[in-house]
Design goal:
- With 645 residues, this protein is mainly α.
- It has 29 helices and no strands.
- It is globular, with a radius of gyration of 28 Å.
- The protein starts with 40 loop residues before the first helix and ends in a 20-residue tail after the last helix.
- This is Protein C-mannosyl-transferase DPY19L3 isoform X8.
């Protein structure tokens, strides 16, 4: 008998900056000519016992990096434990029957999990892959290639890994699946930590960004109740790519380090593209960011071309793995990158001339790039006879008031709350964790600084910041800071327009806010205005303010977090469970006739606490039926499977 459970309603300088200063005490060298005043003998003896002199100047950087990565891992693992505990206590997942666990994967999450289960049930890996490439249970009366139509390579990889590893005796397949998704959240937090650390040269920034990400979990992730969604697989890789780009754009990076980091950019971009069907639209926004920074002379030509090529290479490799999916070749981002590189190659004098001439050249350059982009994209879609993504552009057109649409998929997106505007209560929650205020201050100051630097770059005759010319300038901005600033601006606008895309923005928002609190750039401007821009004041503020914020967050939110994690609930949907068990006992021929139906335009709730609609029940049935006799033609209609989200 099943157990009963009560259910409720619903140190001073840890940044490594000391590496750039000569040691205070130099042992065994000829230039050790420091003159000590009276009363400083005790200080000298203390310095001799410091770690930097015990370990030596060569070992200290490794210790700093190792300690920082260890702290990042601890914070990342803590976040993974938090979401796992919330998921377990929300559903009492460990005490559920198999059918209840699978029903807990809502909407399309169950569909994705069913392919993982199908691969595990196949006699061999080869047979499982064959069944996926010749699938006749997803769409009615059609045999399709699932690997081409959907982004499910992560399920294929996990199923193969589960077969190979000796873990079948003590770890169930469903736990291996959810543990992997939660482990990716560790990667996500580590990537945010590293990005903040690179921008500010301080561990405190990384710790602050990780803590903010955890406390704003409602707005930064929904992994605990939508485990299988594609974004939960892909966004951690996207955050890792942003960290790699930040490292790549750091000044004075050695060529060997640049090549290594570029490989990391490529691998993370490829994993991101392989795991989410919306990859082309996200990369288009990123390509626009690179294009803007190139026009404003923040990046060198080599950096621009390298980043573009990483995007193109990743998309083309995904195109091959998805059996030459025509949607990738017809994507707007590929057309834009090809156009930008082509026009850039032939328009050699773009960055020459005075301010007015350069602005005119940039305007003409942008018009040529956009015209060529739409020409190439239109031609590619005509040649490939591609119409699969037309509903997305119809949705965008109707969303921003450029005309009504009668397209069913576009209208369905317009009715979905997730594709509406960002609710204003989001900012109230972000302000409650003291995230919004430093973010807005940092954003406003850095954006004004970026405009001033951009005007300065455009006023110089080919001698902008990216030219490498060493000259004294009133305003400067590092390329990595400029990229992250434009990243948060562009994806912030995307989040404002489409609520679902806020998860691409809020995580990076934590990074920018932490950089503003712990970095030198913003505080230097503030102190310069107050006429007290000294090293002592800078160091005092950079380390005292984040420590105070961390102490406040711990005092205010740690009890709430522990209370939320310890809150016990239970999955309860007996009607759907009964329906699934009834279906599993039916004759397979009878099932085929019953489920050859058309979904009503307004799906009616079947029953249950989770309000499962008819199409959701069909999805649950598909994944549950894999344990019984094979059933074909489960779905009467299924929209456009290229975009099941």
């Amino acid at each position: 008998m099943r157990a009963c459970r009560s259910r409720k309603s619903n140190s001073d300088d840890n940044s490594g900056s000391a590496l750039h200063r000569p040691p205070l005490v130099n042992f065994g060298t000829k230039d050790n000519s420091r003159v000590y005043k009276s009363g400083q003998r005790g200080i000298e003896e203390c310095l001799k016992l410091s770690w930097i002199h015990i370990l030596g100047p060569n070992c200290w950087p490794a210790v700093v990096i190792a300690a920082g990565l260890l702290l990042a891992g601890v914070i990342g693992l803590f976040h993974a434990w938090c979401v796992y505990s919330i998921h377990e206590n929300l559903l009492w997942f460990s005490h559920l029957k198999e059918v209840e666990r699978e029903i807990s994967f809502r909407t399309e999450c169950g569909l994705y999990y069913s392919y993982y289960k199908q691969m595990l049930k196949a006699p061999t890996i080869q047979q499982g892959l064959y069944e996926l490439t010749h699938d006749n249970t997803t769409e009615s009366k059609r045999t399709i290639n699932i690997l081409q139509r959907m982004n499910i390579y992560q399920e294929v990889f996990l199923s193969i890994l589960y077969r190979i590893l000796p873990i079948q005796t003590y770890l169930e397949p469903i736990y291996f699946y959810i543990y992997t998704v939660f482990a990716l959240q560790t990667v996500y937090v580590i990537a945010l930590f590293i990005t903040s650390w690179l921008l500010s040269d301080s561990w405190l920034a990384g710790a602050l960004s990780g803590v903010w990400y955890i406390l704003n979990r409602v707005d930064t992730t929904r992994v605990e109740f939508t485990i299988s969604l594609r974004e939960n697989w892909s966004i951690p890789f996207f955050a890792l790519q942003v960290a790699a780009i930040t490292c790549y754009l750091r000044p004075k990076l050695k060529p060997i380090h640049q090549r290594v980091v570029l490989w990391l950019v490529f691998v993370s971009t490829f994993c991101f593209c392989l795991t989410w069907q919306f990859n082309q639209f996200v990369l288009l926004v990123q390509a626009l960011i690179i294009y803007t920074l190139d026009c404003l002379d923040f990046l060198t030509a080599e950096q621009v071309v390298s980043l573009y090529l990483m995007q193109v290479s990743s998309l083309l490799l995904v195109w091959l793995l998805q059996f030459c999916n025509s949607m990738i070749l017809g994507s707007l981002v590929l057309s834009f990158i090809v156009s930008a590189l082509f026009i850039k190659h032939f328009q050699t004098g773009l960055k020459m001339g005075g301010f007015v001439i350069r602005v005119g050249k940039l305007a003409l350059h942008t018009l040529l790039v956009l015209a060529l982009t739409f020409t190439i994209n239109y031609s590619a879609k005509k040649v490939l006879q591609l119409k699969s993504d037309e509903h997305i552009f119809k949705f965008i057109k109707a969303k921003f008031g450029f005309g009504a649409t009668r397209d069913f998929d576009a209208s369905l997106y317009l009715c979905e709350e997730a594709f509406g505007l960002l609710p204003l209560d989001t900012f109230e929650r972000l302000a409650g964790t003291v995230l919004l205020y430093p973010y807005l201050c940092t954003l406003s100051v850095l954006f004004i600084l970026l405009l001033l630097v951009a005007l300065s770059n455009l006023s110089l005759n080919g001698l902008g910041q990216a030219s490498g010319e060493k000259e004294d300038r009133t305003f400067k901005m590092r390329p990595d800071v400029a990229y992250n600033l434009m990243h948060t601006v562009f994806f912030g606008l995307l989040a404002f327009s489409t609520m679902r895309m806020k998860y691409l923005w809020t995580g990076h928002m934590c990074t920018i806010a932490a950089f503003g609190v712990c970095g030198k750039e913003v505080w230097a401007l503030y102190l310069r205005v107050l006429h007290c821009n000294t090293k002592t004041a800078m160091r005092l503020i950079r380390y005292s303010v984040p420590i105070v914020i961390l102490a406040f967050l711990y005092y205010k939110f740690w009890p709430r977090l522990m209370e939320e994690i310890s809150e016990l609930r239970e999955f309860y949907d007996p009607d759907t469970v009964e329906l699934m068990e009834w279906i599993s006992g039916m004759n397979s021929q009878l099932i085929q006739h019953i489920f050859m139906l058309r979904m009503p335009f307004q799906p009616q709730p079947i029953s249950g606490k989770h309000s499962h609609t008819l199409i959701h029940t069909l999805i649950h049935y598909r994944q549950f039926s894999l344990t019984n006799s094979p059933v074909t033609h489960v779905f009467g209609v299924w929209g456009k499977p290229e975009h099941p989200d």
